[in-house]
Amino acid sequence: MERAPSSPSTSIVLTPIDLEQITRRDRPTAQARILRLLGIPFVVHPTDGNLTVSRAAAEGVLGAPIGAAPVQSQGYDVNVEGIRTHGQTTAAQ
């Protein structure tokens, strides 16, 4: 059963889509394994076996609101050659 994602402020539990995005798994048993590894508490629903995860608990562990826009890159370039040669002297001096 496919459900539309809810906005973070309207639901106290994660949607099935939220769970799939966090765990990158679609089966509840696989999702449970990943949630345990991440340290996110959950309960198994007694009638259908689906997982119920508190939005606040998941956000607390992950450190960011679920469904928040990703942080945009500032477009900085890394000077790898400068890092490699930092502190080295040249023989031609």
Protein model, in words:
The chain contains four helices and two strands. Strands 1-2 form a two-stranded antiparallel ribbon. The relative contact order is 0.15. The radius of gyration is 21 Å and the shape is elongated. Helix 1 (16-23) crosses helix 2. It is mostly helical. The protein has a domain at 12-66.
Based on CA atoms alone, the radius of gyration comes out at 21 Å
Q: Structural class of the helix and strand makeup?
A: mainly alpha
What share of the residues does DSSP label as strand, in percent?
under 5%
Strand order of the largest sheet: 1-2
Reported for the largest beta sheet, the result is:
2 strands, antiparallel
Low-confidence stretches: none
Question: How many helices does DSSP assign?
Answer: 4
Label the overall shape: elongated
β-strand number: 2
User: Helix content range of the residues, please?
Assistant: 25-40%
Task: Reconstruct the topology from this structure.
Elements lengths: L15 H8 L4 H11 L4 E2 L6 E2 L2 H8 L17 H6 L8
Antiparallel strand pairs: 1-2
Helix pairs in contact: 1-2
Brief characterization of the structure:
With 93 residues, the chain is mostly helical. It has helices at 16-23, 28-38, 55-62, 80-85, and strands spanning 43-44, 51-52.
Which labels suit this protein?
two-stranded antiparallel sheet; 4 helices; elongated
